[in-house]
Amino acid sequence: MQFYKETTDYKDHIVNGTYLLNDSKTKMFAFVPAGSKTVKTFKNPITIDTRGRQFKPVKNTFKYTIPGEAIINPRWEVVGSKGDKYIVEQTEHGLSCTCSGFKFRGKCKHLTQIKK
Asked: Which residue from 5, 22, 59, 86 could staple onto 27, CB 3.0 to 4.6 Å apart?
């Protein structure tokens, strides 16, 4: 399952929403109205006809746990002092970071940011 933002250009000024669809884009499990961050879920999936409609995949920024997706290792994206992005991840051995400082020293300021 994946969130998709509808990008269809309707001539009637219809505002497009964001949908949680299955991989074949035939079933809708949740909906986010345009301009909202609230995910509206359905008791049962709704069949959706995507013919003539355009969608682009988007990240799940709605703090919604997609059914069937387990969080194995929590991860955080951290922006470094020069704007570079690094991933800090909780592993069985503790926190790790993708920056070069962590690779050489085994510690970095990004870990400190997450701990705070």
From this structure: 22
